[in-house]
Fold these 4 entries.
Entry 1:
Amino acid sequence: MAVGTVLVTGGTGYIGSFTALTLLEHGYDVVIVDNLYNSSRVAVDRIELICGKRPLFYEADVTDEAALDAVFAKNPAIDSVIHFAALKAVGESGEIPLEYYRVNVGGSIALLRSMTKHNVTNIVFSSSATVYGDATRFPNMIPIPETCPLGPTNTYGRTKVMIETVITDHIEAQRNNNKKAGQPYEQWNAALLRYFNPCGAHPSGIMGEDPQGVPYNLLPLLGKVATGERDKLLVFGTDYASKDGTAIRDYIHVCDLAAGHLSALSYLRDKKPGVRAWNLGSGRGSTVLEIIQAFSKVVGRDLPYEVAERRQGDVLDLTAHPALANEELGWKTQLTMEDACKDLWRWVENNPKGYRQDPPAELLEALKAKRAE
Ligand SMILES: NC(=O)c1ccc[n+]([C@@H]2O[C@H](COP(=O)([O-])OP(=O)(O)OC[C@H]3O[C@@H](n4cnc5c(N)ncnc54)[C@H](O)[C@@H]3O)[C@@H](O)[C@H]2O)c1
């Protein structure tokens, strides 16, 4: 008997697929909804290869409320949702803002409406550290605690703040309305998880980030420089007030991040807290040059880079104060940025075509041997 059944939107994407895997490994049943806009259904096969269990998969759009209704109707055991499905390119969000608001905010509203019709009352939401914007505008806000005032500096970040607000208003209204009507209300709960910089891949080397277009995150781009698919990395801004002039981020291994979702979901189910926001980060900041150095070390040679102008909307330092998640959720990062570099390189080196190729036989053999242990 499953611990619970979770609908994972965006579950064939990078973080969603790792979270679906972790849920299955911990006794949950998983139903994925994804429109494959930025992912491949091969992720479902890889999840099964690693853990021996297969999530149910529906190709559907989160903005399509009727399609979501049909998924909930067919799977009445679903009791919680982890909501990843979104557009996430910061630069693009400034070019096509209506599309970002339609998919990210509109999709979240359709999901909440459908959940409510089907009495599904727990939601864990993928928010982002970008909701804080430039935390150096306040004294003593680095590392960033959840109490730091929000102030996103780009459209993508503004969609995340809006969704956090919509979820908060809806969950609070459900609790208040039920309370007034003398009905149980504590079942309505939400976790707003503000991720810092997710990175890395599965240690087996057969599952990792496989975006459909050009990646824009630092480590996947470095991966492409290492395989020769790109000539060099562009470093945006070397005049920040950091030790080497480049921007500081808090890199969190995707396996740790996935585990954080499980901890948050358990907290909602056990403690029924209403709406809570938690930072998911390591608390350790690394500059862009430090990441280039760490990844170059794993690859075994210096990777070329070129300095470019700062990007609009970028901020100096996004490093998490993770104490609240550490204490309340009993969750803490176990892996380092260096571990993430190693795992990423194992994935990229062995699967230069991502999910458009079969994984190397020796990695599959090693996985089989590990599973037989
Ligand atoms: N990767 C990061 O750096 C990062 C940081 C903070 C927050 N997040 C958030 O985490 C979530 C997952 O990010 P990711 O890095 O795994 O990205 P991703 O693009 O790999 O995953 C998102 C998934 O959502 C799907 N999707 C997009 N639009 C959809 C729609 N209309 N209907 C159904 N599915 C749709 C995509 O196909 C993809 O599989 C996103 O909400 C993102 O904003 C990511």
Entry 2:
Amino acid sequence: MNLTLKIWRQKSANDKGKMVDYKVAGISEHMSFLEMMDVLNEQLINSGEEPVSFDHDCREGICGSCSMFINGEAHGPVKGTTTCQLHMRSFNDGDTIYIEPFRAKAFPVIKDLVVNRSSFDRIQHSGGFISVNTSGNTQDANATPIPKHDADLAMDAAACIGCGACVATCKNSSAMLFVGAKVSQYALLPQGQVEAKERAQNMVAQMDAEGFGNCTNTGACEVECPKGISLSNIARMNREFLSGAIK
Ligand code: SF4
Ligand code: FES
């Protein structure tokens, strides 16, 4: 395939940035989207130009670092797929592909397609943990019976990889699907009850302090989430928040 790429180039956080056109030729339909970006970068390096910066790590859909807005969609056109799991067979010879960073006030661009998502880390630090005795008397995990239904829902919530697609997709740049998933994975389990009163309160306070917007129930986040995190996690977070507010 021969493709035209329109890519957001931005030298630094303070640079204004602009879309720049590139041509890539001989792209195999079996390549992943990131391999196609590797081909472009090799081309740029060989011609003495600055390669396009983008985040990636696992390249198998589990680390959540490959944040890209592709043709106006977070992680591109295929549902339930991260950018690294997207393959060029989803595109056609002669296509023009628009590639931009995830855009949100709380995710400032560092360079080109790389954004700073440490705001998510700070939300996690504010309440996304449980207290476990690790002094040598650690209880066997199977010693606490958990209803299968609750375990399944907690596992579904824990599938969130913290990629930020929900924020990038939301017109309010809301992080409530991410925070809802992180609150839910503990709220559904007995191990999560020790900090339950403060968890949602603290995580929501940090979410607001980072500058994320509120949820207005559009549901775009759920549609674009590569892990299929359900909006019902936002409802659970709201219930946890309210019950935490009642002293
Ligand atoms: S809720 Fe989905 S879109 Fe949002 S950070 Fe988690 S995995 Fe990514
Ligand atoms: S590189 Fe890890 S999820 Fe894409």
Entry 3:
Amino acid sequence: MLAPYVGADEWQQVTGVMPQARYGHQMVNIAGNAYIFGGAAQLSVRCPLANDIWKYSPDEDMWEEISPNDPPGGKIAYSVITYSDKMYTVFGQNPDSMSSELWTYEPWPRTWEEPPQGLTKPTARAYHTTVVSGDKMLLFGGSPQPLNGDLDNNGTIDICDAIIALQVISGMKSLSAINLQPDINNDGKVSLEEAIYVLQVLSGLRNP
Ligand SMILES: [Ca+2]
Ligand SMILES: [Ca+2]
């Protein structure tokens, strides 16, 4: 982790114990400390998704893994807000589906809580955004299902997905290290179908 020193116009490498490298997570500030939750270590939702939570204290310049009871399941591509010194994780992508879960993490005491069920909610989704406006949370956009051909699982179709398809076809990349949930033809493989599909999307010949 690199911590910027605001006003000093420089970055400084943070050393010591720290969270595992990951993507698809979020970081928030609560009372001057940074908290991260979730994400994945590899570009595949088939790999175990993280549900750990870590706190970084700038004053002590150190990371601490928090171990609250009953955390939500691992997820990526969720959104997050803070309100009244609590962190709210909103929806996201589970290993097998899109989530419509809303969870609250409260640092004092260190507890997770899922609000009562049965409320009318937006459709489950990932790659959306949320903000706080006054005492309301606003949610916008996102995808209700994995994007076909999104092999690096970043929510968009671009040239990187085509390169990954070609790397798998040529044996340069392992199938287990990529996101196969949006398999084009449901054959459990990445082959020319995926590469052609991505290139057709990029060239405007079809919509994703
Ligand atoms: Ca992609
Ligand atoms: Ca396929």
Entry 4:
Amino acid sequence: MNITPMDLYPDSGAEVAAGMAPMDTQAMATETTLLNPRFYTTDFDEMDKIDVTPVRAEWDKLIAQMKSDPNKGHFKKTDAWDAVDWDGMYPPLKREFIDFLVSSCTAEFSGCVLYKEMKRRGTNADICELFNYMARDEARHAGFINDALREAGVAVNLGFLTKAKKYTYFRPKFIYYATYLSEKIGYARYITIFRHLEANPDQRFHPIFKWFREWCNDEFSHGEAFALLMKTDPKLTESFTNKLWIKFFLTAVYSTMWVRDHARPEFHKALGVEISWYDQEVFRKTSTIARQIFPIELDIDHPRWIPNLERMNRAFLAMDAAKRQGGIAGKLKGWAAGAKAALTFASLYTIPAKRHALPASVRLEPSY
Ligand SMILES: [Fe+2]
Ligand SMILES: [Fe+2]
């Protein structure tokens, strides 16, 4: 079965084409910046050669669970989908919320495109089956968010995005690190918001958050699949160089999330969530889960951690302001801010990591 959001939502983007969009969400989704979700491509032939024999028992269990498709009927609007007053929404909140939805939709769809391509090019039955299920889930996720955007008149044309968006090449091992992390962070982000709104339902300003619990279980399973893929080759997580790479990806992914979230103060205020608390909470959950496969963990309680994340945020704000200023002065300020961001990254990267031995069995179940 091969579902894409284009099949599910053939008219996606019609509103944008009709010029009704108050925000150019298509451009927001297509643009490639350091902070925007990217589209990835990789060496699919190398990935096709993975032999899952060393993790066969756990693999078969996970695949059977994905095949049973527990969320088959979940991504449909029901009576629980309350009417949304888009026109009455406080404009700065509306702008940030739409930015959040576009960024989430692009990230979900990025997974769909990558997984679907692996399925299309592969010949390895195990790999093809896994990537087929994951592409199915991500198509639903992206389509569901796009449905929410459509109500606001700003759906993204996902079909167009596959052609217009730049693709970043990552070697397979970098895909494992980055995608594993983004799946587990996705789980941690969705479940943290869901639990917070479960306790504070008056702050649920949009119905989509009600769908997050079952949704994040899909992301959890996807992360499990990448953990098993990494487990097939111990070098991927145990060699000295690869540990440095894992630390690099952890630092890059966490600091990017920090900067991106801090750019949405109104959105988090409406949810009643303090951004730095939320991000630390998501890092903590992700790091705890990642002990299943990563032998190192960032020390997010280190005295240099938060001050450097704040410095990173200021550097990005300065880069942004310099870009808007333009001209030679803007360029110089942009370079200075870029250098500051690079130094800050180095300072974050050199915080000593915590180390631990990997468990014999890799599999986990969602527990938050
Ligand atoms: Fe997803
Ligand atoms: Fe996912």
